[in-house]
Amino acid sequence: AEERLRTEGPNELEKPPKPTLLMLFIMQLTGFVIVLLIVAACASIVVNATGPKAGDPLAYTTGIAIFIIVLINAGIAAWTEHKAGDALEALSKMTQASIYVVRDGKEVKVDVPCVVRGDIVVLGTGDVVPADMRMFEADDIKVSEMALTGEPDDVVKTWKIKARKEGEPEKLTPANCVFSGCSVTNGKGKGIVTDIGMQTRIGRIAQLIAGPGGAAKKTCFCLPDTSGSATPLQQNLEKLGGRIGVLAIVVCVAIFIIGVAMDRTDPSNPDSPAWLYMILIAVTLAVAAIPEGIPLCVTISLSIGCSDMVTKNVLVRKLAAVETLGSASVICSDKTGTLTEGKMTMVNMYSAGVGYDVGGKGFDPTVGTITRTKGGQEAVSDLGVKTALLSAILCCNTTLAKVKDPESGEEKWEPKGNSSEAPIVVAARKIGFSETVQKEYPRVLEIPFSSSRKMMLTVSDMGNRNELCPNGYQFPSGTKYLTVCKGAPNFIIEYCSHQLAEDGSMQPMTQADKDKVLEQVDEYSSKA
């Protein structure tokens, strides 16, 4: 895998090269107002260098001052954007998507860019397909291909190879293949990676878009693409610069024509021609008319705003975006990993008519305990908690283990499997169940979760047990298998006829009992 990653490159779409600090600096000099100031500064220096004050060093003060202001303005803007870009790049590496692959016979978690051709990828409900793959295991798996084809309906996938009939057109998305960027909406499966990065279907589409006729026009061949809608501030500055420039040119031309027509000469040098003196006057007027302080004032103001936002943990890549963000009343942001850590934690549970609080955060089962909401007593010996959590983890495909962080070298608890099931497994470990408890009840059948069924079902072999957990509910004589169902509470509860009592026995479930459970579900949901 390492050799293929080195020779074939990472599994990611090509990105435009990151602009260097020098490129960012040059890009700051392309605005209309800035160009106008540069032209005015050059004209001022040239005219003074060829005029009667050619030998006077103070004659170049105006032009040099404008140049210094322009350079300071460009330097501040370029440095701010460069630092923000570095910080955002570091954040993107921290939040890289990951997937489970089979290597050396073991399931390991790898970052999506590290997936290579030939990898066996394990897919489950909610996963995003990391690369183009051919399926060889498919358990009721469905994939949303809207990102690729635009079709809203989920597509059923299979491991079977269907031969194409003569004259039948080739399908864009064969039934035994899944493609990069598509999400798994139901079931689970395994597949072998056939294409990565720009060789995937989505990568080829990206190449076609960026190809001849599809690529956006650049400001300059040596600068990165800066196409896109300008902010209101940028638009207003461009309009202001244009109006000032046109007005200055019109006034200067008019003064030049009138001065030449009136034969105005330099009082200090009457022998010089009138047109040379009037050019000097016109250029001086143009330089004075252009507000060279505006770009610097705007840049400094935006930089201060950017610095204030950094103190509130908001990174701004483009300086001009600060002004636009100040006008925003609603911000739409991805919650997971942005506003939250991306780690679900169980904080409450309800079993046998009793509410419980689950302490601790994250995936460490050694931190926090399960206690009764009323009274605060520890629930280690409560049969309702033990029965509910054992039943729940028998209907889970997620395990919990310690792994070593490759960067820090420290060991930390990490779940392997579905992120929604991880809190259940962590809570079960907190109540005292071992990491091998799922193997003690071998699974003989599984019906995966489906968005249409809204439930998942497993059948486990009970062996010679006559009770689910010590001193718990007694199974009827001859019981060999235990069926556990999990899913949407309001959907499942309609099929329930009995409920677990606090002493571990089974009691009939009335409509009042069902309403009480649903009320508790609503109460927990309102706290989410």
UniProtKB/TrEMBL annotation:
<keyword id="KW-0067">ATP-binding</keyword>
<dbReference type="GO" id="GO:0005886">
    <property type="term" value="C:plasma membrane"/>
</dbReference>
<dbReference type="GO" id="GO:0036376">
    <property type="term" value="P:sodium ion export across plasma membrane"/>
</dbReference>
<feature type="domain" description="P-type ATPase A">
    <location>
        <begin position="94"/>
        <end position="209"/>
    </location>
</feature>
<keyword id="KW-0915">Sodium</keyword>
<feature type="domain" description="Cation-transporting P-type ATPase N-terminal">
    <location>
        <begin position="1"/>
        <end position="44"/>
    </location>
</feature>
<keyword id="KW-0547">Nucleotide-binding</keyword>
<dbReference type="InterPro" id="IPR004014">
    <property type="entry name" value="ATPase_P-typ_cation-transptr_N"/>
</dbReference>
<dbReference type="GO" id="GO:0030007">
    <property type="term" value="P:intracellular potassium ion homeostasis"/>
</dbReference>
<dbReference type="InterPro" id="IPR001757">
    <property type="entry name" value="P_typ_ATPase"/>
</dbReference>
<keyword id="KW-0813">Transport</keyword>
<feature type="transmembrane region" description="Helical">
    <location>
        <begin position="21"/>
        <end position="46"/>
    </location>
</feature>
<dbReference type="Pfam" id="PF13246">
    <property type="entry name" value="Cation_ATPase"/>
</dbReference>
<dbReference type="InterPro" id="IPR023299">
    <property type="entry name" value="ATPase_P-typ_cyto_dom_N"/>
</dbReference>
<keyword id="KW-1278">Translocase</keyword>
<feature type="transmembrane region" description="Helical">
    <location>
        <begin position="274"/>
        <end position="302"/>
    </location>
</feature>
<protein>
    <recommendedName>
        <fullName>P-type sodium-transporting ATPase4</fullName>
        <ecNumber>7.2.2.3</ecNumber>
    </recommendedName>
</protein>
<dbReference type="InterPro" id="IPR059000">
    <property type="entry name" value="ATPase_P-type_domA"/>
</dbReference>
<dbReference type="GO" id="GO:1902600">
    <property type="term" value="P:proton transmembrane transport"/>
</dbReference>
<keyword id="KW-0472">Membrane</keyword>
<dbReference type="InterPro" id="IPR023298">
    <property type="entry name" value="ATPase_P-typ_TM_dom_sf"/>
</dbReference>
<dbReference type="GO" id="GO:0005391">
    <property type="term" value="F:P-type sodium:potassium-exchanging transporter activity"/>
</dbReference>
<keyword id="KW-0812">Transmembrane</keyword>
<keyword id="KW-0739">Sodium transport</keyword>
<dbReference type="InterPro" id="IPR050510">
    <property type="entry name" value="Cation_transp_ATPase_P-type"/>
</dbReference>
<dbReference type="InterPro" id="IPR018303">
    <property type="entry name" value="ATPase_P-typ_P_site"/>
</dbReference>
<feature type="transmembrane region" description="Helical">
    <location>
        <begin position="244"/>
        <end position="262"/>
    </location>
</feature>
<dbReference type="GO" id="GO:0016887">
    <property type="term" value="F:ATP hydrolysis activity"/>
</dbReference>
<dbReference type="Pfam" id="PF00122">
    <property type="entry name" value="E1-E2_ATPase"/>
</dbReference>
<dbReference type="Pfam" id="PF00690">
    <property type="entry name" value="Cation_ATPase_N"/>
</dbReference>
<dbReference type="GO" id="GO:0006883">
    <property type="term" value="P:intracellular sodium ion homeostasis"/>
</dbReference>
<keyword id="KW-0406">Ion transport</keyword>
<dbReference type="InterPro" id="IPR023214">
    <property type="entry name" value="HAD_sf"/>
</dbReference>
<dbReference type="GO" id="GO:0005524">
    <property type="term" value="F:ATP binding"/>
</dbReference>
<feature type="transmembrane region" description="Helical">
    <location>
        <begin position="58"/>
        <end position="79"/>
    </location>
</feature>
<keyword id="KW-1003">Cell membrane</keyword>
<dbReference type="GO" id="GO:1990573">
    <property type="term" value="P:potassium ion import across plasma membrane"/>
</dbReference>
<dbReference type="InterPro" id="IPR008250">
    <property type="entry name" value="ATPase_P-typ_transduc_dom_A_sf"/>
</dbReference>
<keyword id="KW-1133">Transmembrane helix</keyword>
